[in-house]
Design brief:
The complex is a heterodimer. Chain A is mainly beta. Chain A is 6% helix and 55% strand. Chain A is globular. Chain A starts with a helix and ends in a 7-residue tail after the last strand. Chain B is α/β, with parallel strands linked by helices. The N and C termini of chain B lie far apart (77 Å). Classes of the chains: A mainly beta, B alpha/beta. The interface between A and B is large, with 38 and 34 residues.
Chain lengths: 371, 299
Amino acid sequence: MHFRMNFFVLFLSALAYGAPAFCLTTPNISANALFLYRNSNFHKEDADPMNLDEKPNGLNVREMELQLSSDVDPYTRLNLLFSISPVYEANGTGVEETWALEPEEAYAESNVVPGVLLKIGKLKAFMGKHNLLHTHAAPFIESPLANTSLLGEEGLNDAGLSAGLLLPASWFSELTLQYLRGKGENEEFRSPTPGEGVGLAHWKNLFDLSDDLTMEIGISYAQGGNSYRETTSLSGADWTLKWRPSEGGRYRSLVWAAEYLGRHQSQAGVPQEKGSGVTTWIQYQFAERWASLYRYDTLSMKDSFDPVNLPNETWRRHSLAVVFSPSEFSSFKLEADQRTGGPKNANGDGTERSLFLQANFTIGAHAAHAY
Amino acid sequence: MKKLSFVFTLFIFPFFAFAKVQIATTTTDLAALVRQVGQDQVEVFAIGKGTQDPHQIEAKPSFMVKLRSTDLVLAQGLELESAWLTPLIQGARNPKLLAKEGVMELAAELDPIEIPKGAVSRAEGDVHPGGNPHFQLDPIRLGKAALLIAARLGDLVPAKKEFFIKNAEAYLKQMKDKTTAWQERLKKTGIKEVVTYHKTFSYFCDRFAISCLIQLEPKPGIPPTASHLLSVIEQMKKKKIKLVLIENLYEDSVGPRLKQALPDVVVERVPVSVEGEPGIASNEQLIERLVSVFEKGAH
């Protein structure tokens, strides 16, 4: 779903022109740019120049985001988030780089019903923790293996309705129910049957273990029709421990998170496909502007419907990163990944080794990320 | 039915009749002010702690639970808390707070200082376009803030409006009297200029005619660099500055380097908020603590 860039430029120009005259009603505008250097033995451009590769080695703009948000009226807020990123397409003689503009999220939200947060529009589904993150907020360059393989590169993201209910408990307990149309970019839920969408539920709980330590536990479940006119179901569980001392919290903090994601797909006449993965990562901030991260994640497939891209084996990956943040609006991340299992590269090598250096810059009134 | 009504009146009504107004504040300084004004007629909790940097509080969902039943949020304002307060208010799903009157920002009403001129850019660091929000160290502005709070509490509980205003007026008078005494004590110290880590002391310095134009941060929100520290040391030598105040939100990593270069200088790590260290439970005690640091620095 790519838009023409010139319309977008016209839209931005109109916003900029209107801003001084109508500053009280101009939305909060922010932009983010991610620049990525990648060196991976799986993305050598000279290995197979005619084989499409959306992640070539070298330096490039990874993604640019433009976010606009504002109150519509006393009842509603509108959030629009556009993503611009390079796409590589074969042109008959080689691979050509083009640019894609996509609405990553576009939804209206309202608190008009007390205790309930209502949303309508295109949004990131509440399927676990990682699926909600925007690219620049993810702890690692690559998404967890389970998220990428079972939900797709863009995650579970579709148009639909959402209701988040804050339950009457002494701790933070929120039940979110969503209905997605099932016609988005997610292959696993693209049912040809008209009106057959996806139902999703997420239950999030957060406990203050002390003033400095919190524990979050969440479970998710989604089910809907798939492109085989059968059913796909997703199940998820997440757990996050966060520590930031009240004294000296500028300089030290710790996050330890784990997430499980499973997918079952049915198709007439063949065994049910089962895929599941677990990721666990730890981030330790050891100075005001420095943090180190480690992640271990796995993916296991059984009776895969696509054994070439999703082979029936167990994938494992280790990731190690260090982050330097000169300010809250910029950061640089150096990351090394090693994956075994899963698809092989053009040379038949089954172990993927990648080195990344990512620069992350944000301007404007960027909304705070969720805790 | 009559029995039921009687039971309701006997057991349920008192909870409504005597329910205290629920106030949340972004800082412990504002919570202490609310206690002065509202006394036993309000229940108040502070989101940030006295040892935390109010720019960088995390929007923990557990605060949303507390804000669910809150009648009013008091914030210092001028974008001090904007990064984390908005998601908390939205996440609380409390219609009272989502209304325009649900959040009261005080700093803009208290004659803010250090309002940047011309275009504001993040190239200058964490600049507040509306002016410096750290008014909590100026006793007179605290007194005036108490009056604003009293008026707002009076809107929420009209029956107690006079009580709140009387308390606020008494507090303002008390702070005016104290300010005169503090001014005399500070004058006796002979200290006319200090170095601070961040621009937290601007209102304190403005009130007590002390210059605090030199910060250890090269720009607001940017940690000290070696070259900037050298520049600060040179300026301190030139201006004969003898006192350095490091807000205890920040680590004292630069203190030893300053002491090494300037052995006669007094470097003090000090609280800048109520509950910023044990024994400081009120705004008055906080300012008293700072005045005593100046007296110590003079010897």
